[in-house]
Specification:
Blueprint: H1 10-33, H2 35-43
Length: 57
């Protein structure tokens, strides 16, 4: 197995990046249109804060 067969080409990386970005935009649009769904996602999200109260994640 060569290293070239493992590393994706530029067009493959670009295609996957566009797919991920498109999915993110669709999800953001859907969440913006349904307040109940937005509230559900917010309530079920994990928030991690540091010792100073800053949100890390």
């Amino acid at each position: 197995m060569s290293l070239k067969s493992i590393i994706p080409t530029g067009p493959q990386v670009a295609r996957e990046a566009l797919i991920v970005l498109g999915g993110l935009l669709v999800a953001a649009f859907i969440l913006s249109r349904f307040p109940k769904l937005q509230k559900f996602v917010t309530q079920n999200s994990l928030t991690i804060k540091d010792d100073k109260g800053n949100t890390i994640y």
